[in-house]
Amino acid sequence: MAQTKVASSRSATASIKYGRDGKDKDTQEKKCIAMSGINCDPSNAEYEFRVVRKAFNKAKDEGKDIQAHLIEQSFKGRDIDPFEVNQMGYELAERLNEALGGGFQAVVYTHGNTDNYHNHIVFNAVNLEDGHKYHCYQEKNIVERINDAIVREHGYPVIEKSKERGTSVTIKEQKLKDKGEYVWKDDLRDRIDKAFEKTKDSLHFDLERFKAHLTDLGVNIRERFNQKQQITRFSYDFIDQDGKNRVTRAKNLGVDYGAEGIKYGLEQERKSYEQFKRQSGFTSLPAGRAANIEVPESRDRIQQYARQVLDARIRDAGDETLQRDTQTGDAHGHQRKSNTQDRTSEDHPTQPGQDRRHDRGGFER
């Protein structure tokens, strides 16, 4: 449904003006049909971006340094509300901003001058809170993942990617694969994939658990940190099937195997699981039968567990209702008997030929 491209620009002003003010060369009509902004006014964004750059002394080399990071989000066809297109672009910018730690300005301009609606998203390269520069390892991969999640949430199909997405294969390796021969990088990717699946299935979506599963599969992982002591890069080493010690950086395996790709993947799995728990309704157990149900330790038992909790709640609710109705019924029975014994015909006189009907506000059924 939606595809993304990422790029950078040395002129934030030019990128913003193209997105907001650009005109169709045939009709001379403005391309932009909807706009939105994060931490800025999209109608005045070039000035607000510039103020932030100057405030942190990052405007000295105008036209030389990277001033903006760009995302193009393109939707297939026009069978969709353009304002929903803009909303999905806004959500993409918002979640990417959150993944970057927050504090970045971004604008979303929706164009409707072609056969496909598309968004032009422009991020200021300078953070408005602390002045640090926009830097996102595996940016393309992360943007793709966020985009696919948003498209699904809006009820649209996700464009299927090839199975080789996220991998990096050399010509020599491809020739070996074509001959059906052993490729040690494929072996390593398979082990990393298995470690990721084991981490996901354990319902512990943390990097330490992932590293432990890698160790169990014979893979060592080395981490590199930035000045803030945040993990920025991975490298892997293991003994291949020929007994050779293989060492490689994650970037040689593909974008899905880097630090940002793994961390983002685990975080998305955690969010998906939390959403499932909320939808299944077992975040808090009833005090009755459901409280004695064992909490599952793997994803394979989640569905069965949810059904057990739901059945227990239904039984508990049914028992409580039956008990309440029985008690209420007994009390009402005694009251009706007492009232009948005390009531006389003078209390509710009926005229000859008059029917007793419930008052329906003057209307009869």
TrEMBL record:
Protein's UniProt keywords contain Disulfide bond: no
Domain of life: Bacteria
Domain MobA/VirD2-like nuclease: 26-155
Claim: Protein transport is one of the keywords in the record: no
Region called Disordered, residue ranges: 1-27, 322-365
Keywords from the named record: Plasmid
InterPro entries for the chain: Endonuclease_MobA/VirD2
Composition bias, Polar residues: 1-14
Stretches with biased composition (Basic and acidic residues): 18-27, 339-365
Name this polypeptide is given: Relaxase/mobilization nuclease domain-containing protein
Organism of origin: Macrococcus psychrotolerans
